[in-house]
Structure formats: C-alpha cells, structure tokens
Design the sequence.
C-alpha cells in the first residue's frame, strides 16, 4: 500500500479559504499593536503627499537635498520637512487615503495598522503563489502559505511596520510576475506586461532600492534565453524582440514610479537614482547595536551581521526546508528551462542583497529588518524543499514520520505567535536558545512594540489614578508618540517628560534598548522599582517601574520581577548623567555636553561620561573637540569599544568635512551655549574671514564679551555690527546691556 499526496486542485479550496482567513485575522490582530518608532513621521508623510495631490501643500515636491547635494537629514542633523521625500511614500499615501475614506471611525494609527496587516496578508499570499507557479501545485501553495504565515517576525512586523512589510509585499509580487512571464514564454500577454511594469513602479514607490527588481528581470530573462539557446529551442530574432520588449517594460516601470512619488515627478529619470544613492550606504543613522553580547557602533559591525540575523530569527521549519532544497537541488535542475530560471531567481534574490551588503560594507542596523524582502524567497525555497521530500519518500511509515517531524518543527513558531501577541516580531530561533538566550546578546525591542502592552498593564493594575489625580507615565527612549497616543485617549493617565531621579512621575516604562546610550542598563536588568516586565517568552522587552521616591506610594502587585539594585545610583554624577541623557534624547546637544562634562568632573574615570561628550561633539560637527576629549578617555581605558567606535566616526567625518561660513556660525553658537566664550569669539572672527560684512559675527562677539564682563570690547563689537546693520535689534539690545553693565 502506498500513501499518495495529491499536489494539485483538491488543495485549491483549502488555499483560498486559508488566504481569506489570513486576510481577516491579521487586520483584526493589528488592533492590539503599538506604535513603532518611525510611524509618526510616516503618518505625517502620508498627509503631506495627499495635500500635494489636492494642491493644499507642495512641501513633498521640494528637493530633500541641500545646495551641496547632501540629503537634508544628514546635513542638518535632524529631519527637515522635506527630508523624508527621499522615500517613495506610496504606502503612506494609501494609508492616508484609506483613513479618510474607509476607516474614518478609527484613529489614524489603528487605520494604518489594519492596512499594514492587510499588506502582510498579501505578502503571505504572493509568496505562496510564487510556489504555486513554480510547482503547479496548490498543495505546495498551501504549504508555503502556512510556513509564511507562521514566520513570527513577518507576522509581528505585519501588524505595524509601514516600511519593510509593504516593500517585501511588492518584492514578492514582482518576483511572482517575473516568474509568470518566464513560464508563459513564448506567449507574451499584455496583462502580464502591465503587471510587471506596475509591480516595479509600486515597489520603487516604497523604496528606490527596489529598482534591483528590474536588474533581476533582465538578468534572468537572459539566463532563460541562454538555457534555451543551449537546448536549441529558440531563434535569435525572437530573443532580440522579447528582450527589447522587456527593456521597454522595465523603463515604463521605472518612470511609472513618479506617478506615486511627488518629488520624483520633478525629474522622473534621475531622482529615483539620487534617492538610491543615499540608501546604497545609509550612514545617517549611526548608533550602538547589541550584537553577540557587545555594544558595537553600527559602522563597525562584523561582516556576518546580516546572515547571522537571518539565521537567528527564521524558524527552524524554514531553515531546515532551505537545507532540504539545497540537498535535493539535483532533482530541481532537471526541470524545464523556465523552472530552472525560476529556482535560480529565487536563490539569487535571497543571496545577492546580503552579499551586496557584505561586500559594500553597508551600514545596517535594527536586527537587519531592512532585508525583510529576501525572506519570501527563502520561504519559497524552503517550501519546495519540504514538498520534494514529501513526494520523494515512498515508504508509508517514513512518509508519516516526515509529516510528523514537519508538524513538530512547525508547532514551535505557531505556539510563539499565539503566546506572544502582539510582540511576535521579537522572535528568536530555538537554535540559539530562543528569546531567553538572545536577551543581553542581541538587539530586542528597539522599535517600541512593547510600549502599548506596558501601558495596558498599568491601566489594568493601577488603582490609584483618577480623572482628577491622573497617573504620570514617563518614557525616555525614542519617539514619545509611542506612549502619548495612548495616554491622550486615557481619562486616568498622562505622559510626562521628567528626569528619572525626580518625583515628577509615577511610572517609568524603561526599555533595554536604552543600553545603546548606557550599556549598564542591560547588564543590571531589571531596574530598581520594577513591578512588571513585558516579555517575549522568557526575555524582557521593557520594565514598568514604580517611582520608589514617592512617599506612601501604592505599588501594584509585582508580576514578573522584584526590585533590584539600580543600574545607576542616585548620586550627583548619576543625576548629571541622566540630565545629559534627557537633553541628548531631545537633540539638545549643547546642554547635553554641559551635563555630561559635569558628570565627568564628578566621576572622571566613568567611560560612559567621556564617550557621550564625544558623541555630542560629533552630532555638532565639533570634530576637533571630539578628538581632544576622546584622547582623555583613551588614556583612562584604551580598550573601551564605544569610545573607539565614536572616534573612528569622528576621523571619518573630519576627512570629508569642509568648513565654511555657516560652519563657523554654528560653531560660534555652540561655543556660546557651552559657555566657551573665548572660543566663541575666535570662531566668530573666522566668520569674518568668509563674510567680512557679517553683522551676526559681531553680535556673537559682543555677546561673548558681555559674558566675560569685558564690556568695553562688547560695545566696540556691537558698534562694528551696527555699522553693517543699523536696525538689528539683537545688536542694539546687546550694546544696551553692555553699556548698562559698564556703568554699574
């Protein structure tokens, strides 16, 4: 007796029902998702794109580059109103339109999460359809849909990721169209050509780097024709004709991107390429990344960073299926030429982006989520590997054993998804010990997916807050909207900005990701006052801290953790350090320098104090000061990795930096704010070398002399400035202050 598996139509109904279920369940599950770090700016981006199309606001049509051709985010240090134009924004636009038309009864984030989850469902469906096109089996499609759906990181990201999920969805859609095109040759269908061009346009309208899909299309069409020529099955005229058509469709797809991208419309030919040049090696975001137990600057991560992240975050069912595909590859290369081309495309699309990152030494961070778009190709290969085993094994008992093994392996990510809603994106493979082993070794909740569950816990367990006496919740790390959005809906709680060592808050939601700035937080986890931890299986994603400084406070019953010694004790140095961290988080780097320097004076051998001063100087483009202060730290501890990484970035930036008048204007201001008045005067005089008629330089000199109580020199400087700008109120006020002080 032989047990036969039918890999054809009987499974089509099951596939369709499963696809429908996923399309309903994922959007429904998104209601529990929190707000991620980057969502607020993408929400605003969608509004501005809508306003552009309606003629209400033309901001997103403006160039995101400054006069020197630098992306404004980089050159200005903070995101300008037009900096985000570098992104296509198609998903942001669709989300805004859907909110205005379909989901008007929901708030903006809930609406966007539903759409993100629907895109996630489409991602799973397109991935499954790729497998169906290649295998011509609905059973394999169903198998692929199951594996894709129960990939925890994809499931979790689908709930609230406005970047990587839409990109991965359109990548999968494009690969599906390319494979379908190859399969249908020599027949060329108009609908397929339209879908190909549209798939390229939509993918690039999310991220310009998706133009690599055009390269895939032309490369593997050439590969297919090479196989055909070797088989003697096609003439050269047909190849030339088809290739010319493919190039035309590729050009149409490239130019069509501009229809969904206002800034690209200004120059449809060059602007997508200019965007891609920024993201080819995105070096704007440089921060410490926890990897293999060490905090390492993102520019100094090991070459295997991306491959390892794929390995530790994919379920065993995908990794083992991929291994089976590679083992059984001789069976696959005996197929038809279009199918061999499809296998090659899938493998190449999974490997090439990773190799490009490695060879290009590209800046990558945040658990390598940026290469989420390669995961569907891996899943399809894994599904084909499992399917081939099911078909190859003949013995009934061995076939049953393989089936049972598959279900056992699959059950692990399935259980994780059900037990860890809505933080499924924090999944780690059991091959490294799961989330328990990942904690303190790898980056966890850098995006804030645990903030909403933490707020929900506080609302449920706190019995003291009322509408008249609202509970105060503090969040330090990152985008405050992650908390504010939910406190604004609450009648009992408000979000507050308060120093950690103050009595001005009741609860503090602290994330291990804050270790980017103070590594001791992770190594001394949980913090003092912890009453609950939001967990992903056995790993904490954040701690809910009750302010132990409040007298007679009513503390909710502890859920997971008891208070332990604080990571930073409440002494003057720690207070100054926390003050500096608060200023740093608000991008007030001058105030942060003063606070960190004060902390350094109180604790001169604390390397974090020194490192953070250097980091602030780098943010302010004060590279000489960064090197000078960094040298102090190197003498204290020549092996402190964070400081060494920051100094490397200092040297790298200094080599390409070219001072100009604006640089010295900013430098003069920075010195003034840091109370380095002599240096303020010196840098102001440098302004005059570039701009001899700069009244602003004389104003700064006057202000600095006033602070130095050298009022005669202050009056002299103001007089020189007033000759250039007689009506300038700043100069008048500074001169009046100098005269008054001089008279006293």
Sequence:
């Amino acid at each position: 007796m032989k047990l036969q598996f039918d890999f054809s139509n009987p499974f089509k109904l099951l596939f369709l029902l499963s696809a429908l279920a996923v399309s309903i369940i994922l959007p429904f599950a998104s209601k529990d998702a929190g707000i991620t770090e980057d969502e607020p700016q993408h929400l605003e981006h969608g509004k501005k794109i809508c306003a552009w199309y309606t003629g209400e606001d033309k901001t997103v049509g403006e160039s995101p580059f400054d006069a020197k051709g630098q992306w404004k985010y980089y050159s200005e240090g903070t995101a300008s109103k037009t900096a985000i134009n570098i992104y296509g924004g198609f998903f942001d636009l669709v989300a805004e339109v859907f909110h205005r038309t379909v989901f008007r009864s929901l708030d903006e984030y809930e609406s966007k999460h539903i759409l993100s989850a629907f895109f996630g469902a489409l991602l799973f469906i397109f991935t499954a359809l790729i497998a169906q096109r290649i295998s011509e089996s609905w059973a394999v499609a169903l198998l692929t849909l199951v594996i894709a759906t129960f990939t925890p990181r994809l499931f979790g990201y689908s709930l609230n990721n406005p970047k990587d999920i839409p990109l991965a969805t359109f990548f999968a859609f494009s690969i599906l169209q390319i494979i379908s095109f190859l399969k249908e040759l020599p027949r060329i269908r108009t609908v397929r050509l339209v879908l190909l061009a549209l798939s390229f346009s939509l993918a690039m309208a999310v991220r310009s780097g998706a133009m690599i899909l055009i390269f895939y299309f032309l490369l593997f069409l050439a590969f297919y024709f090479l196989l055909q020529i070797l088989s003697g099955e096609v003439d050269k005229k047909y190849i030339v004709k088809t290739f010319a058509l493919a190039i035309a469709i590729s050009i149409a797809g490239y130019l069509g991107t501009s229809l969904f991208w206002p800034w690209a419309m200004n120059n449809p030919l060059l602007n997508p390429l200019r965007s891609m040049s920024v993201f080819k090696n995105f070096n704007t975001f440089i921060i410490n990344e926890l990897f293999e137990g060490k905090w390492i600057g993102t520019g100094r991560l090991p070459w295997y960073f991306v491959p390892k992240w794929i390995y530790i975050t994919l379920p065993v069912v995908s990794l083992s299926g991929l291994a089976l595909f590679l083992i059984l590859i001789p069976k696959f290369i005996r197929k038809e030429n279009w199918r061999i081309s499809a296998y090659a495309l899938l493998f190449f699309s999974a490997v090439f982006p990773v190799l490009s990152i490695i060879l290009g030494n590209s800046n990558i961070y945040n658990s390598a989520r940026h290469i989420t778009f390669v995961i569907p190709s891996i899943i399809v290969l894994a599904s084909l590997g499992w399917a081939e085993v099911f078909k190859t094994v003949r013995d009934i008992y061995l076939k049953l054993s393989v089936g049972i093994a598959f279900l056992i392996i699959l059950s692990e990510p399935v259980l994780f998804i059900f037990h860890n809603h809505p933080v499924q994106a924090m999944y780690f493979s059991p091959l490294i010990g799961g989330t328990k082993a990942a904690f303190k070794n790898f980056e966890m909740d850098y995006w804030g997916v645990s903030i909403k569950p933490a707020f929900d816990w506080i609302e449920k367990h706190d019995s003291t807050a009322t509408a008249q006496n609202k509970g105060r919740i503090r969040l330090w790390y990152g985008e405050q909207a992650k908390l504010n959005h939910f406190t604004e809906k609450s009648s009992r709680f408000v979000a507050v900005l308060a120093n950690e060592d103050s009595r001005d808050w009741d609860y503090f939601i602290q994330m291990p990701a804050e270790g980017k700035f103070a590594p001791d937080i992770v190594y001394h986890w949980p913090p003092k006052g912890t009453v609950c931890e939001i967990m992903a299986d056995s790993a904490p994603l954040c701690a809910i801290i009750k302010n132990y400084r409040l007298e007679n406070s009513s503390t909710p019953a502890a859920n997971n953790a008891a208070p332990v010694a604080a990571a930073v004790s409440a002494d003057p140095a720690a207070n100054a350090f926390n003050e500096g961290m608060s200023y740093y988080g608000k991008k007030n780097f001058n105030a942060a320098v003063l606070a960190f320097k004060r902390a350094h004076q109180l604790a001169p051998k604390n390397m974090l104090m020194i490192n953070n001063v250097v980091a602030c100087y780098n943010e302010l483009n004060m590279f000489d000061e960064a090197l000078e202060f960094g040298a102090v730290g190197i003498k204290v501890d020549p092996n402190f990795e964070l400081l060494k990484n920051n100094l490397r970035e200092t040297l790298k930036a200094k080599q390409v930096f070219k001072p100009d008048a604006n640089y010295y204007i900013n430098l003069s201001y920075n010195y003034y704010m840091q109370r380095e008045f002599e240096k303020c005067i010196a840098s102001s005089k440098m302004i005059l070398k570039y701009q001899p008629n700069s009244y602003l330089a004389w104003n700064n000199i006057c202000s600095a002399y006033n602070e130095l109580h050298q009022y005669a020199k202050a009056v002299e400087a103001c007089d020189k400035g007033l000759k250039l700008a007689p009506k300038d109120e700043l100069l008048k006020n500074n001169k009046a202050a100098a005269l008054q002080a001089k008279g006293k």
User: Anything to note?
Assistant: The radius of gyration is 29 Å. The beta strands are 288-291, 294-297, 471-475, 493-496, 507-510, 530-536, 539-546. Residues 1-7, 74-79, 552-570 have pLDDT under 50 and may be disordered. The CA atoms of residues 112 and 217 lie 31 Å apart.
